[in-house]
Specification:
Blueprint: E1 2-3, E2 29-34, E3 44-48, E4 54-55, H1 58-63, E5 71-76, E6 80-85, E7 90-95, E8 101-105, E9 111-116, E10 122-126, E11 131-135, E12 142-147, E13 152-158, E14 161-166, E15 175-180, E16 186-191, E17 196-202, E18 205-210, E19 226-231, E20 236-242, E21 251-255, E22 259-263, E23 271-275, E24 291-297, E25 302-307, E26 314-320, E27 326-334, E28 336-342
Antiparallel strand pairs: 1-12, 2-3, 2-28, 3-4, 5-6, 6-7, 7-8, 9-10, 10-11, 11-12, 13-14, 14-15, 15-16, 17-18, 18-19, 19-20, 21-22, 22-23, 24-25, 25-26, 26-27
Length: 343
């Protein structure tokens, strides 16, 4: 059921920022969100420009302050970047290309990801309350919400619908929820694999990466991962590709518009690659190494691999050609986790 947020309860305050330094221009290039140290650190944004110059903390340069704890997701429209801060329980909104802070949406419990809806409002998933919020583009206040199944995670927009994955949070789930983007009414529920965590739209299909489940109690309830293809028109599963290694916990599905990429396991980091006409889950790594995040540029088909190294020292970003050749490496911040390409 939808939940209209009462005006007197928990509305986020528009927190205008007075930059302490003169913002520069960070037009075009790759914007890398670095999580920051898990306890007490701050997220940062690394900007890798199209002329290969690098600003390792572009937000601080533009605003003269830190971004906030535990960056989790980043998205954008033509005029703004939106940074989801899980630890700070907020979404920081930045103007583009100067990166000066426009304000901050607050009042979440454990926000995960955001997408920009038609008209500029945001949809934000929140693990802490198993809820999806609509955030006003003008006021940055939460103006509507809907209760969902466990661990609402990544989202994809299709026509006037929001498709939401449910990662199970700290348990198990196996569903996608389809919402009306205008009303947040639930239109359908689609059963996929265990703990769907990331999703991309490619042609008329939705590809859903399901990370499986590890029973840390040793009770034998482990469940294998899979990649699932769903027809967007019929909302039906058209193919399931079981992971080759039952212990893999794949994450962070991306596409360059032609092929699929994801990380074999959240902490071991081989990059897997799959064509949409392949009939089996990939066995061999396409790029071996310690990937923690990915970003594919559809215009050039270059792939950016984010390496968190030991999660304590500064990470790095590596750029690969569509053929898998390493082209360049630049430094990042602490735990680079997500990135977005701005043309």
């Amino acid at each position: 059921m939808r939940n209209l947020i009462p005006a007197v309860l928990g509305l986020a305050t528009l927190m205008a920022c007075e930059p302490q330094t003169t913002p520069g221009s960070f037009e075009s290039g790759l914007f890398v969100l670095n999580e920051g140290a898990f306890m007490g650190g701050t997220a940062t944004i690394t900007h890798w420009s199209t002329d290969d110059s690098v600003t390792t903390d572009a937000f601080a340069v533009a605003n003269g302050r830190s971004l906030g704890n535990l960056g989790n997701g980043i998205t954008a429209d033509a005029d703004r970047l939106y940074v989801v801060l899980n630890g700070a329980a907020a979404v920081e909104v930045l103007e583009y290309p100067g990166l000066a802070s426009v304000g901050r949406a607050t009042g979440f419990a454990s926000p995960r990801h955001a997408v920009v809806l038609d008209g500029g409002d945001l949809a934000v998933t929140d693990w802490g309350r198993n809820r999806l919020y609509r955030v006003s583009a003008s006021s940055l206040r939460r103006i509507d919400s809907v209760d969902l199944a466990g661990g609402p995670e990544a989202m994809v927009l299709h026509q006037d619908e929001i498709w939401v994955t449910h990662s199970g949070a700290y348990g198990m789930d196996s569903t996608l929820t389809v919402l009306d983007a205008s009303t947040l009414d639930v239109l359908a529920t689609v059963q996929v694999g265990i703990n769907p965590t990331s999703v991309v739209k490619l042609g008329s299909s939705l590809y859903v990466l399901c990370s499986g489940y590890t029973d840390w109690s040793g009770g034998g309830a482990d469940r294998s991962a899979s990649l699932v293809r769903v027809d967007l028109a019929t909302r039906s599963v058209t193919a399931t590709y079981p992971a080759v290694n039952p212990g893999d916990r794949p994450t962070k599905l991306h596409t360059d518009g032609q092929v699929l990429y994801w990380i074999r396991d959240g902490y071991t980091g081989d990059v897997l690659r799959m064509n949409t006409n392949d009939v089996d889950y990939p066995v061999d790594a396409w790029i071996s190494g310690s990937a923690y995040g990915l970003c594919a540029d559809p215009s050039t088909r270059q792939l950016y691999v984010l390496d968190a190294k030991d999660f304590q020292q500064t990470g790095e970003v590596r750029r690969y050609s569509a053929g898998g050749q390493l082209e360049a490496t630049v430094p990042a911040g602490i735990v680079p986790t997500a990135a977005i390409w701005m043309p």
